[in-house]
Amino acid sequence: MNFEGLDAGMGEFPPNLHGTLDAGLEPSMDPHLNPTLLQGVELEAEGLTMTVPEPVHMMEGLFSELHSVVSEVGIPVTATHFDNQEEMLWMGNHRGHATSFFGPTMGRHSSFQVHAADDIRHIQSLETGVLFLSKSNLKCFTRGGLVMFDYPMEEGADMHSLLMTGNNTLLMGGLQNYVAEVDLNTVQETQKFTVEIPGVAIMRQSNRFFFCGHTSGKVTLRDLRTFKMEHEFDAFSGSLSDFDVHGNLLAACGFSSRGLNGLSCDRFLMVYDLRMMRAVTPLQVHVDPLFLRFIPTYTSRLVIISQTGQCQFCEPTGLANVADLFHVNTVGQLLMSFDVSSSKQALGFGDSGGCVHLWTDVPEVSFNDYSRETEFALPCLVDTLPQLDWNHDLLPLSLIPLPLTSTEPLLSDWPTALAAPRPRRAPPVDPEILRTMKTVGFIGYAANPRTRIRNQVPYKIKDAELDYDNYKQVPESPIGRDEEPHLCMVLKKYRKVTIKYSKLGLEDFDFKHYNKTLFAGLEPHIPNAYCNCMIQVLYFLEPIRCLVQNHLCQKEFCLACELGFLFHMLDLSRGNPCQASNFLRAFRTIPEASALELESLHPHQLHQETQEQEGPQAYRGASSSSLGSSVESVIGKLFGCEVENSSLCRCAKETVRSSLTLLFTMHYPEQNSQDKVIKEYDFAEILKKSICLEQSTQAWCENCEKYQPTVQTRNIRCLPDVLVINCEVNSAKEAEFWKVQAEYAFNKAMQKEAKETSKLDEAPPPMPSEWCLDGEELCSMEGLAIDTRAEDLRHVWIPLTMKMSISKSQGLEISSWSEGDELSAVEEEEGASLYDLVVTVPHIQDGRTGGNLVAHIKVGETYHQRKEGVTHQQWYLFNDFLIEPIDKTEAAQFDVSWKVPAILYYAKRNYHTKYDLRIKNPIDASVLLTEASLARKQRKSHATFIPLMVSEMPQAGDLVGLDAEFVTLNQEEAELRSDGTKSTIKPSQMSVARITCVRGQGPNEGIPFIDDYISTQEQVVDYLTQYSGIKPGDLDAKISSKHLTTLKSTYLKLRFLIDTGVRFVGHGLQKDFRVINLLVPKDQVVDTVYLFHLPRKRMISLRFLAWYFLDLNIQGETHDSIERLSALQLQKKYWKARGREPGEMEGDHAVKSEEN
């Protein structure tokens, strides 16, 4: 080093920096130990390093050494890196070994071998692990040293640099003529960019460019998307040593060529202004620069490091000051690596002697602004025996452990007469296997769901253990608000499910993780989505599904019509969730929606609406007053039960009224204060008393002309096809009644199982003649019970099947019935019927989420036949978009500490055979005819569309350009994380405001035939005029001059086009159809977003595509949906470029665009 011009005292170091080895340290600990390398460092007896515990006094703002540690003596440290997530400093040495040090005390955290021979050239920390780059290998380890993946390079690769370009992508460069891009999710190379100048030794990134430093001394600026070279700086004539970028400045250091003398370190730093893309005045420094970094704290300071350990701070636009020099005590070793922490408070150096030096400018250093907690290895705890005072008189001799020397049996050894071996119960068969199993003879075949490891079955004491999360939380009491809080654990599949939104909205949300069936779930983020479970219940009642899909009327907000539209989407969906936004919009217009009368709202409302004769396709039914009419609505026939209510006064006057009820509410017996124990009741007994209710109330008596105590009695005249029961468990007293009755039923089942087991023990085991393969029923062979499953009946009180009958002498009779048995011919002649449990709706009480409603539904054969092509019945859990097959006993289990029964459905066996289950589409071509506008001020001269003529009616395969505009009803709810990113909690609620359809062929091609503005009764918070072109007043029927219609009217037009089979062309149609609440088959959608989309690139806007391909300037001041229909022209341009005719089918255009 040349020290001319420097202070002569700079080379003299104080004596306290030159420590000596401790006199007690034996030199034989390591024969290769060089004492001159360990000045100021102590070695523990086990060989671990520890710093000299000297007090450190530092001035804030001036860097000074805090600690120095030795990793491996004599092995050069080739890479250092401050962890970006935790308070750790990583180092890698020349022999491929990595070590991490924790915090400012530099305590060793982990140490492991990364590569057997090659040196570690670059280290990069991730959220889940740490990347290590060697010459021909990229490895990822956990911070504890476990291998996550190993990615080998191509033969001949010589990698030097690594750069993270995203959360899951990185670039790697080296002495070869290419830079490789690797996806960390798949650990595969995604792209390979050729570089014009080989030897990419250093890479940096800003918000504008990638910067590549080459061994030839040049720095190239490359495009962030294509990696093409945009600019080039010829920094040094020899070679580049290091460079860094901050703001609009780029500073570089390197070597200059000196002719025959080779290369020499250049003491001028090259500084470039990235705004003007030219060099500014070079910066002269007083050290030979090898490393440099920007440290932007108060100013944009530069730190320049020489190989001998000299450090200098300077401003990139000013003169270097000699007073800003300090020296790293390397004891004659050379610095090999350098890094700066993200907080800019710490500097890390690695030298050729194996030492790591930590420098800082603050007394309490922190490597990151927000570091997470570091996990440490648990120490090995060895139990030691306590010290015993043998001389103490009161010392108990039992504390002295003695070996067992006697041959006498221990008290814990049970004799054979008192103990019997019991085999372990076989684990239950996976419900997915039972659901898909096909039986041939007595053998069942099913595909392997691969939910378990091959040839291994986990041994669990309790089957429900895996359904609980490993944390404890005490929520509020689920029943009584004034009760003491207690611990209750809600199974994971029953908890309220939420959608996690990203920048792409729902496109990257994995719904298949929650639903592996082909049935469609419902999204929960819409207002009033609490009734999603009841929508599923009505959908899986076959007569209801057919009724509402055949229904159509002129009423704007008709629940039956909207339910029919929704059920049509559920029929078409193949496992993807739907949203009931239009149905819930009509649902909000009903006053009962705010009262949450879930159990009675749907049947009563549908019963009323399906009787209204407002359309030619509407079901014709009698009003509720004319019960004797021969024409009844399907709702009345399905749920309706004619009841006779009699009121008997003291004066012996009896009043009898007849009415139709659609559900029954449970009434539980009153508990006397003297009875401390709740009596045992059968569910059928309580249900009979609730249906044939008898109670005393105050009522008006016309004979007495005043209110008198009256006895009111209710009797039924007929049995409904579907019995709906409201459980009415609203208090802790009723919940306790359910709990006690379930315990009574469980104890009975256990006693019955014990009796059967004792009989089997007495009798010799018979040899089975044939095996019974049945996943649902209990198998028995001549008295040999294979599985009684009494343990599964815990928390079960309700029967799976009931027998009900009405006789003149006895009245209503209800009793529990075995599920597999049928009625005799005599019982059928007497009018008895079997009712099977088909639906249970429990209320999940979860203090963490506020609770939610789910449904257990027994899905019938016809639904499985349509969706999966198999004929069987199966119970499923429906929790919004989570759908999972369950066992039938789970549907009847109610642990009232968190799972409270709400509604039960019992269906008469084979009830659907007497209903017409054919569906005829009620939507015809008349919906496309001209209609009057709701706006009072509309003028025909201002019409923006020409309706279709009869000769222009669309056919299957015709092209129709479509676009829609929306307004915002509710703003999105989001939160900012600590790292500055935004997390969407609830998306904004949009409502369609304008729908435009354009002819795609024919003489009037390009002319709209639908341009409807949608009237809305809900409050609009943002018209989004800049993007939608909708202005305040356009949707108001009193002042609007547009063609204003109802959403239902325009919805019917689009449904007719979809059912006809037309193909919609547009830009971003996925979001349009989602907000309109339409499900369109993929082969009927041609989206220009995907036609012109390259793999792993961003989506291109319609404005750019129209300008680039069509030379059109659209969406200037406002956004007009007719302008956006230039997507038709873009599609023809695409077809022309592909050499195809516009009439050909596009197929899966998204996949084909990726092939380009």
The gist of it:
It is an enzyme of class 3 (hydrolase). With 1156 residues, this protein is α+β, with helices and mostly antiparallel strands. 16% of the residues lie in helices and 29% in strands.
Q: Outline, from the CA principal axes?
A: globular
Strand content: 25-35%
Total of helices: 20
Average pLDDT, to the nearest integer?
80
Describe the structure in your own words.
This protein is an alpha+beta fold. Among the domains are: 244-327, no CATH class; 925-1138, Nucleotidyltransferase, domain 5 (2-Layer Sandwich), CATH 3.30.420. 16% of the residues lie in helices and 29% in strands. The model is unreliable at 1-57, 461-487, 594-601, 613-632, 767-788 and 1145-1156 (pLDDT under 50). GO terms for molecular function: metal ion binding; nucleic acid binding; poly(A)-specific ribonuclease activity. Its cofactor is a divalent metal cation. A divalent metal cation binds at residues 963, 965, 1072.
